[in-house]
Amino acid sequence: MDKAWHGRTATALAACMVACAGAWWLAHARLQQVQADFETDARIIHRLLSQRAVQHDAVLATLALLQPRADAGADAALERLPALYPQITAVLRRSDDTPWPAAERTPLDAAEARSRALHRAELAAPELAEGRYSVVLASPQGSHALQIDLRAAVPWNEWPMDPATSPVRVALEHAGQAYVVQPGRPQSRGWRFDFRKRLASASQPLDVVAERGVGWAELPWWRMLLWCALVAAAWTAGQALWRQRIARRRAEELLRLGQVARLNTLGELAAGMAHELNQPLTAVLANTQAAGRLLTEAPPELDMARMAMDRAVEQARRAANTVGRLRRLVERPAQGQPPKPLLLDDAVRDALHLLEPECRKAGVLPQLQAPAEALTVLADPVALQQILYNLLMNALQALALVPPAERRLLLRLAPTGDAAHVQLHIEDSGPGVPAEVLAHLFEPFTTTRQGGLGLGLTLCDSLAQAMGAQLACAPRQGRGACFVLTMAAA
Q1: CA dist 95 to 56, 70, 89, 266, Å?
Q2: Where are the strands (E) in 234-366, listed by range?
Q3: Is 413:372 a contact under the CB 8 Å cutoff?
Q4: Torsion angle in degrees (nearest 10) through CA of 433, 438, 441, 446
Q5: Domain 222-330 belongs to what architecture?
Q6: pLDDT classification of 66: cutoffs 50, 70, 90
Q7: 470-474 and 376-379 beta bridge pairing
């Protein structure tokens, strides 16, 4: 029973580990998929915004190459430029004798100086919180500046996600300033994926920053629960199949024990019958032979009487021979193998496992007391198994006669004082053995159970003696019986 419980516990733990491993794999796969999608979308966003930034550089380069004259027609052409590029809110131009507008003169002058020194466009007056910045390109004949509106610079028609529902936060950052392109849904708990990359334009060194939080609610709980349910179902089915296998093996073992028990019982019965019938048949034979001798001394007219006596003798001998043949036919054969070392603890646990359904039906929970060190005895495995089976069945039948709350069954294993023998005590709290029956308990046809043949304990005693063991019924204080099987220690 302990082995079965440990086996069920081990398989249950293994099933839990498989379920947890599968659920972890599903969650990990989901996170990897989310991360891959996030990184793909972030690279698309970076490419789109970089294209707009490069477009601004191209517009400035075109303006510098064309170098329009500072007349009304040129100003009109510059004013029409925002219609072509909605993100360009204004185009500013400065020549040597025309300064920048007063409101933006200082940052534009500084950016123009950097542009003239580096020979490229430069960022000026970034106000990312308000969603705008300027780009300045200096040239020998004059300088141009573009004022950019970040709200209009985002190509929403090519955007890879829905900005209203997407959980990804997208922002443009520079020098501690940030413009939030897409708010997303920040997560305080769970997992976080980040993406940061500068725009592909040296004149607009803005960092594209994307963040994606994954909360616990986004894990594939239904698939994880389904996996756990499948593992639980598989474990339950496996347990059911295992229980069926155990029940089938137990039934086969009980059938085998029953067949062996019936054969041995029949042998004991035949031996008892032969013993009981042999004495009267021998007496009949002796009496008829004596009568025959007496009759032979009578007058010769008594031939018919002598013939009758001869026939009686013949029939008596035939009856004796028939009983002898029956005894030789069904008498239990000698033990097939000599005693060999075996673990008594395992043999007792196997017997308890075999009778587990009977114990459960009777409402009895057997208790096994054994020393920490395993006890090895010399015994015949089959004979020992049959002895344990008979003794335990007798105990269960005795316990059926007392109330369920008072049913106790205790098995104790212990070495004797000389350490040369090992004893097994089987104690029950049944009605016990009457004193007048105790002296004849192991004799054939002695029984205290109604309907019993009185051959079970006789058979157990014969099997014990055949393998060099002793079986006795020990005195017990109070109610109940205690049978002690003493075997040689290996």
Answers
A1: 20, 9, 21, 129
A2: 340-343
A3: no
A4: -70
A5: Orthogonal Bundle (1.10)
A6: confident
A7: unpaired
- 3-class SS of residue 180: strand
Q: Is 443 left (phi over 0), alpha (psi -120 to 50) or beta?
A: beta
The per-type count for the chain, helices as H runs and strands as E runs, is 11, 15
pTM score, whole prediction: 0.55
Of 8-12, 30-34, 456-460, which has the strongest mean pLDDT? 30-34
Would you list the domain boundaries of the chain?
2-218, 222-330, 340-488
Amino acid letter for position 374: A
Phi, psi (degrees; rounded to nearest 5) at 470: -130, 140
Beta-bridge partners for 485 = 424, 471
Kindly state the tokens that stand for 431: 């009605």
- The residues, ordered by sequence, that sit 6+ positions from 278 with a Cβ below 8 Å of its Cβ are 320, 323
- Helix then strand then coil, in percent of the chain rounded to 5, is 55, 20, 25
Question: Which residue blocks in 89-131 are alpha helix, DSSP H?
Answer: 105-118
CATH architecture of 340-488: 2-Layer Sandwich (3.30)
DSSP 334: P
What is the structure's pLDDT at 333? 46
